[in-house]
Amino acid sequence: MEHGGGHDVGAHKIGVFLGMTFHLDTLFMTWITMALVALFVIGCTRRLALVPGVAQNIVEMVLEPIMSQIEGVMGKKGERVAPIILTIFLFVLFSNYIGLIPQMVSPTADINTTAGLALMVILLVHIFGVMDSGTKYLKHFFTPHPLFVLLHILENCTRPLTMAFRLFGNIISHEILFMIMMILAPFLAPIGVLFLGLFIGTIQAAIFTILSITYIAGAFLDENH
Fold it and tell me: Where along the chain do its domains lie?
């Protein structure tokens, strides 16, 4: 299925290196997204002021709800993970948005990207759990009965799967919708898809981030087991 800018929805340019297969377009767009996030953060934090300007107001308006969510769920411990959570949010947000530019493809429209992000979040859960509670965090996997470790293993497999497919499915469906609208209403499609894409991109970035906060917060709470 062809995307409006000549891109086939779900198709990727393949590269092989050392026997491993890569989606070259996804890699390229991922690096562009990381560069944009870095430039955005640097540009918006170079001249912080007590009386914020327009740029600082926009950044605070976007990030303040995320910070409030982190503080509300994790308390003071949230300060340790806030930089990582905010980075995840900005990366997913920019990844979702960049696909709205003609000839550009969202990295999050590739299941490999969303799966990688989801696995990273689950890995962070265990890293912060061990850092916060040490061996107590590991022991809770076997309580109240050793067989409960099987349920924990299943849970740690389903969490990244649901996170990855939810984000991927919503972003790829937007590209398919754009293709359909370009066929049915080529003059109205760009405007409608732009606003819809901004809405979907923002909501999906927020959902992925909130799930990340919830899962990581669970690692801190596990010290009470």
Answer: 14-224
